[in-house]
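Whiteboard transcription, Tuesday session. T.W. wrote the structure tokens on the left side:
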């Protein structure tokens, strides 16, 4: 059964949005995943080596479809935490923040994948609402930085 985020629920915290993102990957629900991202979102991932990242849903969707296929046979453990102090973000994200004057929220997820050997990755989600309205509960993923550690 597919999730329908648009009509069923809004997520009350950024951490819940990130948790839902991973759940939707596991459920192979690409349409509901799309609803978690802004149309102009950016994904910085290590596979394509694009410094400017994958921009917009037309570039992000094929990457997520591959991630869904790869996730099928992996066991994984996820630890999600909100970062209150943006000084704790990594160097690449600091450069992005210096060039972006928004006050977007950051949520970090540490994943441990296992299929024979263990692989660890850090996912840093930048979330914001469209109008930067602090009273809005419509936060979505503005950017995602994926780094294997």
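and on the right, the sequence the group agreed on:
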């Amino acid at each position: 059964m597919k999730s329908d985020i648009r009509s069923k629920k809004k997520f009350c915290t950024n951490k819940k949005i990130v948790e839902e993102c991973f759940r939707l990957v596991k459920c192979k629900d690409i349409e509901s995943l799309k609803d978690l991202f802004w149309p102009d979102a950016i994904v910085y991932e290590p596979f394509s080596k694009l410094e400017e990242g994958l921009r917009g849903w037309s570039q992000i969707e094929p990457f997520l479809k591959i991630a869904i296929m790869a996730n099928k046979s992996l066991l994984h453990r996820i630890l999600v935490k909100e970062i209150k102090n943006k000084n704790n973000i990594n160097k690449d994200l600091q450069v992005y923040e210096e060039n972006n004057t928004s006050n977007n929220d950051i949520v970090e997820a540490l994943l441990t994948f296992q299929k024979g050997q263990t692989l660890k990755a850090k996912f840093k989600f930048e979330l914001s609402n469209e109008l930067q309205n602090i009273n809005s509960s419509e936060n979505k993923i503005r950017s995602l930085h994926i780094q294997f550690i």
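Someone added at the bottom: The chain has five helices and six strands.
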